[in-house]
Amino acid sequence: MTDSAFPQDPRAPRPADPPPAQPPSYHPGSAEPRLNRPVHERYPQIRPTSGYADPRVRHTGPGPGAGTEQEPERSSKLSARLALALTVLIGQLWALTIVVDEWMSGNTGTAWWGAGFLVLSFLVVLGLWALDPKDR
Amino acid sequence: MSVTEQPPAEGSRDTDAAQEALHDRIAADSLTTRRDYLRIVATVSGGLAVGGVAVASGILHRHGDGDGTPEPKKIADRILPGESLAFRYPGDEDRAIAVRMADGTLAGYSAVCTHLACAVLWRKERGSEGELYCPCHEGIFDARTGEVTAGPPPRGLPKVLLIEQLDGSVWAIGTARSGESLQEGLCRQQGDALRLCRGGAGAEGERSERT
């Protein structure tokens, strides 16, 4: 094993190195400058999130492109909106059965009230949906 | 662009291409997000609202709904006890069934199950005095009242008002919706043409109501 990054013929004559007077001073990284290039230059096919995680995450820590959630309330709000919309949808399914039942029984007025309830519920869901269009 | 593919060496000048490739990868890997689910829920909700308005507007056919007052129709010369008869009244699409029970009671109902519109059958061997039976989901209706006694149907059967003449012939003269009495249904269809509906409780001439 040689110290150089480039393998050499072991049978080739090499200059005799004088023994070091003192241990080499520590410095971070490699003695080869090309090995000290950033990772994305040395291995351009490897991306910061290759194989896992969200590829949109570009940096660690706070700031743009960071991997942590910068606004946890946003996710909670979206989950709450979705849960509310699903609840309203279940109510609509129930109301539609009532509307059909009342209409078939001849209670047209009640059926129209039910239809109004369905439309209002749809407007509520529409509002939940349109609350923040840019949210993901 | 594959992840194993080498991007151009001039990274700074090809930022747009790299961004585009990254966008492609994001788009390819993205799953259905909660926002997508929210959009789907909103779409379904709108469909339900439209369906409710359509139902209230009368998109569903009710037994007996048609143009004007239904005309009396002779459906049989005679129905013997324990027998039933399938007929259509008042329109050709209004399937109905007439049942003569063992004690002589004559009853007429819509033959369309109120659950999922299967055909309702007369089963005289079921129950104590026979039942109206829907074989699709085991729906059972009382033969005397048309009300649901078992199974999933949400409401009773619409009724068909049958009368029997002195010569034994059976006539259908009107219909009543689910939950509506025969008199209410008859008066709704006939208006003030009948003495029965003008506030009195008189009989209908020589006809004897047996339903």
3D structure, described in words:
The complex is a heterodimer of chains A (136) and B (211). Chain A has 136 residues and is mostly helical. Chain A has a domain at 73-129. Chain A is built from three helices and no strands. Chain A has helices at residues 39-42, 72-104, 108-129. The longest helix of chain A has 33 residues, at 72-104. Chain A is rod-shaped and about 110 Å long. The two termini of chain A are 53 Å apart. The relative contact order of chain A is 0.07. The model of chain A has no long low-confidence stretch (mean pLDDT 81). Chain B is α+β, with helices and mostly antiparallel strands and 211 residues long. Chain B folds into two domains: 15-57; 73-209, Rieske Iron-sulfur Protein. Helices cover 23% and strands 23% of the residues of chain B. Chain B has helices spanning 15-29, 34-57, 182-190; strands at residues 73-76, 84-88, 95-100, 106-110, 121-123, 131-134, 139-142, 148-150, 159-164, 170-176, 208-209. Chain B has a four-stranded antiparallel sheet, with helices on one face. A four-stranded antiparallel sheet of chain B has the order 5-6-7-8, with no helix packed on it. In chain B, a hairpin with a 5-residue loop joins strand 7 (139-142) and strand 8. Mean pLDDT of chain B is 83; it is low at 200-211. Chains A and B meet through helix 2 and helix 3 of A and helix 1 and helix 2 of B. Chain B: It comes from Streptomyces termitum. Chain B: Pfam families: Rieske. Chain B: Keywords: 2Fe-2S, Disulfide bond, Iron, Iron-sulfur, Metal-binding.
